[in-house]
Amino acid sequence: MQIVRTILWILLLVGVLAFSFGNWDRQIDVRIWPGIVWDTRVPALVIVSFLLGLVPMWLYHRGVRWRLSRRISGLETATASMAAPKADPTPPAPVRPEPAHKETPAEPDNPVEPEPTTRP
């Protein structure tokens, strides 16, 4: 795409140069206000008129591209922050393992069995 743009600018430059060489001998009077007359050549008038039309539109185009690129980058950051997993700031509490058998007998109050008693 860059080569096409370069070729178009070169063709425009060649056209302006050909027009300038062909019309350089003609001098015209441009009346800006009553009493103010500007003596200029035709190619200068054509180039100034072209630039007066091109520069504002080019500045507008650059402003729109700048604004849209800022908007797109803002939306991309918002999307990236929403898609990223949230890091939990507090570590989870350690989980105590549950006993394997729920039907285990309860421990006796006295874990040591008493000595057997003898009867006389």
Write up what this structure looks like.
The protein has 120 residues and is mainly α. The protein has a domain at 2-80. It has helices at 2-23, 42-83, and strands spanning 27-33, 36-41. Strands 1-2 form a two-stranded antiparallel sheet. β1 (27-33) and β2 form a beta hairpin. α1 packs antiparallel against α2 (42-83). It is rod-shaped. The model has no long low-confidence stretch (mean pLDDT 84).
- Mean pLDDT over the full residue set: 84
Q: Structural class, please?
A: mainly alpha
What are the secondary-structure elements, in order, as H or E?
HEEH
Q: What is the straight-line distance between the termini?
A: 116 Å
Secondary-structure topology with pairs:
Elements: H1 2-23, E1 27-33, E2 36-41, H2 42-83
Antiparallel strand pairs: 1-2
In short, what is this structure?
This is DUF1049 domain-containing protein. The chain crosses the membrane at residues 42-61. The protein is mainly α and 120 residues long.
Main features:
120 residues; two-stranded antiparallel sheet; mainly alpha
